Records
---
Amino acid sequence: MTIGHMNLVGQVFGRLEVINIDRVENHQPFWACQCSCGNTSVVRQDRLRTNNKKLATRSCGCLSKESLDAGRIYKDLTGQQFHDLLVERKEGIHPTRRISLWRCRCVCGNISIVRTDMFTGGRIKSCGCRTARVAKINSTKERHWNWKGGVFLGYSFEWNKEIKEKIRNRDNRRCQYPDCDIMDTGTHKKLDVHHINGDKKNSNSSNLISLCHKHHMKVESNKPREWESYFYSIIEGHNQ
């Protein structure tokens, strides 16, 4: 015992029993303590004697671990939604991790058993079907004629054969350029479908019109706005 400091040997603070003094730093004693769990630790004197629960040291650290484990084991997650998973009920305790297991129903209908810690940080978002859905979407994009290197080259993902056929049928499968009588009869090459205002990402039917290849190239070589009002008036006539 260093002269000038109180003797805490034998005193108990929470789970810690003071065994002897370990050292003194900057006039502050540090005490070697035996925890009731069997571990030993060295604790600064003011952390033993304080009544402030946030600052006090009352174990070797096992109390905090047990508190965390208790939260993992006993916190009720029933009814909570984690991304695509709805927690239906507790399914038991993990045999080695001392953590709760939960029965979850995915939006796809599948049942999964999930550990509590898997919900945090978005580590799990579905029964596994979300990964499959994303892979399917990516696969569809990669097969799209306009998908290159992870991006669409100027066009929206909705720009496809179906929307083109819809526009050709709306326009009676005839080129809408002035005084052009070329038709898509099945024996000729299909009519091109033109974005009226030049915005390739706007594939709304009100922005699309049918043109033969010759006149499509002619319109594309000019400023789109020179033809906008004319083509929009044709579409309005179709819709009346």
---
Amino acid sequence: MRFRVWRIIRYVEILTVSVLAVFALFTYRELSALRKQPVALPQYEFEAADDPEKGRVVRSRGTWIAELGPPEPLQTTTIECRKSSMQCLESAATVVFVGDRGVLESVQTVFDVDRWTDAEIVSKPTPVKCTNRTLVIDVANKHTRSRVSAAEERGACKARPEGTLDLVTGFKVRDAIQKASQ
């Protein structure tokens, strides 16, 4: 009888440890996923308005996603174009991973506008981190794109293929990053 009770206690202990191990595995997988994507990215927004002080202003906000090629890092971008100054200011906050820690980096880029019509705003090519970027804002369809091409001066830069980035709502980028990591 005593041996039987001891055996039942052992089985209960083994079952308890097994269940806890399964929960630990699920918790570890969930925390690993959160470390890879530690932030919630914002929705896409687009606004075109006439401001009495600033003149015509077009604002767009979202997350860049590559049409083809490797996914862009986790980031959020706000673009404000003013017709009075014929410039677009892009403010981007990017999560850069150093080991398993995410560090937030902030960068502002000024794009000079080449052409501004009621339907479209196109910037001049602007050098940005080993590439040249051109903003193309389709005001009529409320869509923002960036054409990326290789910079003339390469120096220590790796060759990057030409491509197009679309400003989209944040969950689309998270889905693309998850698919790329699988």
---
Amino acid sequence: MDFEKLKERVVNLVPEALFEANPQFPVFTVPADRLHDLASRLKEDEETAMDYLFCLSGVDMEKYLMVVYHMTSTRHSHSLVLKVKTEDREAPLFDSVTDLWQTAEFHEREVFDLFGIRFGNHPDLRKIFLDENWVGFPMRKDYKDEVNIVDL
């Protein structure tokens, strides 16, 4: 499926999806409550067959937190990017996609540990890098490192 057909498919499934021009992948920002259903449809649909989630990243844009999902179809050799965001910095929460792609389990734990973003229905959401007693989320832009005094 080419770039334009992928764009058309996502917009048909989620009309409120915002498309971003990008030379490498079609990129869509979708409402958080539509993410799991859209991802599931993109994976299960024979024409899209997004069977491989190759990157899941947390991003702090200061005014909002975001999770970015890069997925590809190994069968059809096409890829796309989905983004979800929230302005809730106190209790950020998105649906887990571990039931769709098992590799998301590790990535979501990393995002939880370093950004404090929770993933509903995650099978084992716990810290993966930082000590259990660690306070704060070191990848957030408002994080203050009082011990090592690293200022960015």
---
Amino acid sequence: MAREHILVVEDEEDIRELLRYNLEKEGLPVTAAASGEEALTVVDKALPDLVLLDLMLPGMDGLEVCRRFKAGERTRHLPLIMLTAKGEEADIVSGLELGADDYITKPFSPRVLLARVRAVLRRRQAAPVPEGEHLTIRELLIHPGRHEVLLRGQPLELTATEFRLLHLLARKPGWVFTRSQIVSAIHGDDYPVSDRSVDVQVVSLRKKLGDYGPYVETIRGVGYRFQD
């Protein structure tokens, strides 16, 4: 079976080569791009299996690259992990809203990097949930088999992580899930993530749900639940 191919988009050469070294050491071939424009050219020639995208790029920034990928018919389902600096929370939320699957904050450890890359690749390859199992909550319909969420008949553009989060909570209204339970259910037990990462995903999901956002309730000091 062909190995998954990773596109690394990072303008700082030292970080770019560090990413290449750690990924290729794990058997993941890498193509590197130093700018957003170069990344678009690379993807136009051949689709990678996953993109690691720095947000702070010269010229076309990472958010614009993400926006273009998610707007393209050929590239809209391309898995994408953002590379961010500390203090870029607004950009992180913007990227997740555009459709990025996850983010990694610099400086990062190689183990965290590889765990998150593997997790996104596993989700990409996961078998679909049976077609018939869907949830209807007033005007909100969640259809796992189609990986589709409709609100008043209109589709919502959710990332894979946002969809899994919503489906997890909505299946058991009133049931409180801790952040660690959410991470384990969505990513697996070996996934290294902070509580803050879960909080950022919830913020992004609520925004996309619009006036249904308050259905995802915060239980202070515990976690989250879907309103009963």
